[in-house]
Model the fold of this input.
Amino acid sequence: MLNLTRKEFILMCGTGIIGLIGGTIISQSKPVETNTKYITNIMVNPNEFLILNKDSKGVIYILINGILMQGQEEEFANELISRGIINHDGCDIYTLPKKEDGLITPIEDISIETQDNLNYTFTSNSKDKLDKIEKYQSDLLAKNSDLFKSVNSKTK
Done:
């Protein structure tokens, strides 16, 4: 049996405790995030709109970058029905965010952001949702864009 001095015993115990604590910290590393984010970039002009796939409730989401004046929602829906883009007027219409709005999530699991009010970044955990985004043009949005292009306002 070895004869240890008090100093040697304290150093030996301290070293053992530090090794035990260090081993515990290493084994408790943070879990790796397993959520994959999918990103797609789409340019949307003021005369264009996007349709997102129906959700589980059958709602059609329409995202416009242009202007619909008050009362034009029904006219817009009728245009889409007559062109065969949608088959009923049960849809939710959203305006795409502007640069100053920052990152928004108007629709479940899809975040939308823009830096220039023309090019949009869509981010989602579901690649399928992003793959099903469809882009169309609208005569009504084009007409409103031309009409408001000549209007000078403080909000432009």
Notes: The longest helix spans residues 6-27. The two ends are 88 Å apart (CA to CA).
